[in-house]
Amino acid sequence: MPSTETVDAIDARLLLALADDPRATTVALAERTGIARNTAQTRLTRLERTGALDTFERRVSPEALGYPLTAFITAQVTQRRLDETASALAAVPEVLEVHGISGTVDLLIHVAAKDADDLYRIAGLILAVPGIERSSTALAMRRLVPYRVAPLLRRAAD
């Protein structure tokens, strides 16, 4: 989980340059942002250490791995078993991320599936997780706005 340390305008410019060219060298990033190479390297290291710069894994498409279906499963959980439930969900490879949410359900579980039968299997696995009392599955029909932070980075860079 990212730290509470905030990204300043220089960090934001550095991250925008990296988003534009993920394979750029530290020297190239420093030149694009107008900072010294050592400063760029120090900041990139800190951003990785604090969790502000996410892992490369985030860029890998489940579709490219043979999982074209995206679904969101909401679940009600026995509260005293939340940690156990989260650990069990983390053991399911098709579970991409899990958010604890407020409202009438407790978890929002983002999953990837090969097809409808696979999604049915995954939903069954999730329902069998200790602590899950009830679940509901919604298939994502189309991604209308992809995951992005560039607009926030641009705001922070100004």
UniProtKB/TrEMBL annotation:
The keyword Transcription applies. Keywords: DNA-binding, Transcription, Transcription regulation. Residues 7-68 form the HTH asnC-type domain. The keyword DNA-binding applies. Signal peptide: none annotated. It comes from the Bacteria. This is Lrp/AsnC family transcriptional regulator. It comes from Actinocorallia libanotica. The lineage of its organism: Bacteria, Bacillati, Actinomycetota, Actinomycetes, Streptosporangiales.
